[in-house]
Fold each of these.
Amino acid sequence: MKKVLIIREGSLGDLILTFPVFATFKNNGYQVFVCGKGIYKSFVENYGSVDKFFPIDSYEFVFFFEKNNKVLKKFLENFDLIYAFCDRKEILGINLEENFTKEIIFHPIIKELNIHISDYLLQPIKNYFSKIEEIYRIKIDNKGKFYVIHPGSGNKSKNWNRENFLQLSKKLENVKILLGPAEEEEIYFWKENFKGEILINPSFDTIIEIAKETITYIGNDSGITHLFSITGVETIAIFGPTSPFIWGPKGENVKIIHKKVGCSPCEKEKMKQCKERKCLNSITIEDIITFLSKEKS
């Protein structure tokens, strides 16, 4: 069986958006090995259709970034193909070309995308295979018991107002608030103002267990939102300054709430400087409630 090494550094959302690539190789008879940030190792091995995950940011794999390292050459001999989401001109790309004699597909992430990111990630291998996994799904047995609200993301500029999430929580019955590492500064606010259960920094595997009992998940453009979307749980994703056309979660049960204004989408620097936040402030609690009401009727 052929072996592919896929190099995909990035956040949780970046990796989940790459799951269709992993699954496409797997469905076409490859053993799939992935290099990425070590914090995601267990989650990707358990749910990402991969055989093994290598933590490229650990000391053990520093040889990827060292010149003339014989360990890298020996390591790469195990694979038949490398699919690297990096530029061949950066140190990682240079080292790969110097130490791997078989085929390498370089596919760096570009800023100006005009298609959905998951379609872009699949582009080079659509000519390789007839079976392409375009939408990834983790199969779970869902027994909806409560709503989950995740009011944060890795970029505060993308977040709907926390007071809106708080008011929304009061209009729903049986709500749990989920806070990850990026929301450490928000814990005090939620403990002071929210009377229900607060789930603080659960592991990714635990989040899958939470999803099994979730009626509807509501959150911003975040990795956790992408995680819920692939479980098949009803997912409401609130998008403001980023483009849902490019970065939105895909799934059969996903609803994106987005009100396009003249200045969106925008670059990261503009997000940080923006004070009006029209793209987010134009989204109301009633927009979410209205959608939920339609789904129940």
Amino acid sequence: MTISREVEAGLERAVAHASPLPRNEGTSLELDWVEGVRVNLSAVERRAATLTTRRSVKKEWQAAWLLKAVTLIDLTTLAGDDTPGRVRRLCAKAMHPVRQDLLDALGVGDLRITTGAVCVYHDMVPAAVAALRGSGVPVAAVATGFPAGLSPFETRIEEIRRSVAAGAAEIDIVISRRHALTHDWEALYEELRLFRQACGPAHMKAILATGELGTLRNVYRASLVAMMAGSDFIKTSTGKEPVNATLPVSLVMARAIREYFERTGVAVGFKPAGGLRTAKDALAWLVLMKEELGRRWLEPDLFRIGASSLLADIERQLEHHVTGRYSATYRHPLG
């Protein structure tokens, strides 16, 4: 069951990366702006609820949206038993995330679909860089004492530098949560400025660990400070907290991105991570980005989804679209 030429044309535009955006160089710390933030919890929850109850994407359009979601995934392995072999298999999946027979059946077999990146620990960066060489798929490395962010500061800085030197094009750093919890925004800003400097040419994604920040107001404030400090992306979670990416938190962060863009003219990316496991989850976050930030935020340079098992479920849903039958998850392995 192929998708229509109209949908395919839109997908071609979506798969192709948009014109490169300038880096977020950051601004001075504007404490009046940060301290003036207010968040209406009930309004946020009502708005987030409408994203999944009043929107529906079906049939060939759903297939196209799911293929788009594939291109936005940071395919991730962050386990204590990671090996170079596992990382190489993950990279092979990142370069060919959907089976060719499914792409052919959908009529898009000629499109070069890859995931947005592969995300690994520092020690696995060399293996990932070697496996992805020439593919155009970047390597992202978690750093700065991931996931707790409590390593000695110089150790965290050195970890960034070594990952960049090893070939990581993106660095996912974690903030010191205590700065946000005690409202020491100056300390958070200075920490992030130094992290950004250590990243050099690599793009920096600031992980806010929103499940540990206490309130949505803290989430909004930390988002602003991270962008003022020069973060290219703001990211919800490490995936290791009890509560990770949720729609209400993501909505608040998207609103912060929109306000920063309106004030500075600089577009900052967004990455939800942790807990996004199904194709239905992917569609909900795509709707959120499209409605809150616009079509431009559906490109890999402004939106990523941190996930591991999500890709298998998307591929499974695409096979159902083609055959009308659901296959077992084990038929869509990641590594």
